[in-house]
Amino acid sequence: MKTELSTRLGVEHAIFGFTPFPAVAAAITRAGGFGVLGAVRYAAGEDLARDLDWMQEHTDGKPYGLDVVMPAKKVEGVSEADIEAMIPQEHRAFVQETLAKHGVPELAEGEASGWRITGWLEQVARSQLDVAFDYPVKLLANALGSPPADVVARAHDRGILVAALAGSARHARHHQDAGLDIVVAQGYEAGGHTGEIASMVLTPEVVEAVDPLPVLAAGGIGSGEQIAAGLALGAQGVWLGSIWLTTEEAELHSAALTEKLLAAGSGDTVRSRALTGKPARQLRTAWTDAWDDPQGPGTLPMPLQGLLVAEAVSRIQKYEVEPLLGTPVGQIVGRMNSTRSVQAVFDDLTRGFERAIDRVNRIAGRD
Amino acid sequence: MKTELSTRLGVEHAIFGFTPFPAVAAAITRAGGFGVLGAVRYAAGEDLARDLDWMQEHTDGKPYGLDVVMPAKKVEGVSEADIEAMIPQEHRAFVQETLAKHGVPELAEGEASGWRITGWLEQVARSQLDVAFDYPVKLLANALGSPPADVVARAHDRGILVAALAGSARHARHHQDAGLDIVVAQGYEAGGHTGEIASMVLTPEVVEAVDPLPVLAAGGIGSGEQIAAGLALGAQGVWLGSIWLTTEEAELHSAALTEKLLAAGSGDTVRSRALTGKPARQLRTAWTDAWDDPQGPGTLPMPLQGLLVAEAVSRIQKYEVEPLLGTPVGQIVGRMNSTRSVQAVFDDLTRGFERAIDRVNRIAGRD
What ipTM score was computed for the predicted complex, to two decimals? Predict the structure, then answer.
């Protein structure tokens, strides 16, 4: 599965795998794809350095990338404490009420909140980049808009390609104008932050909008048939995130959450602002229902909502409080029905791709 | 572009075109596709008979189908007047207020409401079928659930294949259990009544759910590349509706509406209950905004909403009141940017399909 972009990056298959877990990212790269490690959960540079060291040792010299979440709009001189202070009391009370209603225990005294969203903050993202630029990362992706010009320049100086997610042709053109190298067209059905346009429509629209820039199709892709579809739509590769969440290498640290993912159907996700303040697709839970309820206080804008709910999400995850337990995931969750190794998933993708090509060739009378 | 289903129906290309306009349906059939005439706008059997006579004369003996809107739930012995009586006064007042706010003129005295939704009513759909069964229709499609068992039996007695739209694998299995022959997997991005699951995820899910029943991919398809994607996902054909709305043969009878469609981007549609009471994708307008506004009275369930707004929609269309003027259409509206003949659109589809096959074969190393 070779495109101009996969050849340029030196990978066997034009399959890009986004994941917050180093073991998954490394396994994707070893399987012949391009693993992209999500950095948002790393609050401290040393944690990221430790995991990038590990990646270096476990990728056999093959290429991998890093995904940061750097908001497009820069907020100068604002600390985490300043932002915390902007959160209304009503919303804090609603968090506690919702947790109490479901009997979610407190964290032990002094126990740190495990789920972090501090990577949303520019200063944190920048400290992550300072670390990352010491490693032979081949691709830097940004989930929220184009990275600042100086970051793009630093990446390019090091021969690192820069990508960003886009939910519309307008966003994609903005990335092109900002000098980016790759656009990830993130369809409505995708997990995490998404727009309203589904992949079937968005992919070719973005391809046309930024031609000749390479585009990766993201959203709704978890089989080789879907990869073939994404490539038929003009993408130079596909970007898969959700499908790795139930692999053996994923470190969800919650059997209950894994069970929920394995049991969920494609209709069990919702696009909600509950987690970050921007619409992000995730499992629909009593938690998302509470925030999406017109009778409730509603969500706060990013980054307030993320800071507001961080400790609560940690508690829900630690104590595995089933009705509230969720995670960002796409509609593809409906076909995540067994726990397999990354290699097994990858083999399934490449075999399914070949089957799909056979199929369309038969239909086109080319067999 | 041949599949088992297209061969069975005797068409050259597995492209199914749904349209309310006989001239469009006939042109799709003549071009080598399968034209499907939407019957919902026919209140009287004689009007449908006249247009089916015309179809017979203009399809060169090639096959075509009919699409009715027969609600799955039968309401016995209820007349249109009975249903009218269930509409609250508050909602009637809201219609008049919204029309007045935008200065929509009244219809002339005695002038009939041109936009009809009476085809939603079972007795009307049944009278349409009584007419249709006298013609060599090859496919009967139902937009709202499985048709009643006696209708399926009557169709099968005449060698007519029966199809129904499905927005989920569960709906699709229901159609299979009801003895239907084809499922149209209608993705989130589609125009008209849609569910929440996007085509990229829905198509393969439905294919797997009803195997070996043939599935048509619908939603987001308006180019040959998108056709290739739909077929790669396992469909035996594609079902296109929106793309024909701006063809030369389409009888929208409103230059302003055609202009709106040509100008709209993929983000200019909304899934709203404003038109029928069930979520249907359409152009976003001041009309849909009014009904979707949490401050307003909200929409009524089908069929009440459709009856409530029928005359208003006729007035908006007749007087082309721009801010309110809309139509069901999918996200593909973003690429409907010029008025061309059905044949030109069709040629574009088949050429784009061949290009997409070339492309994926190059990526797969099969060129």
Answer: 0.95
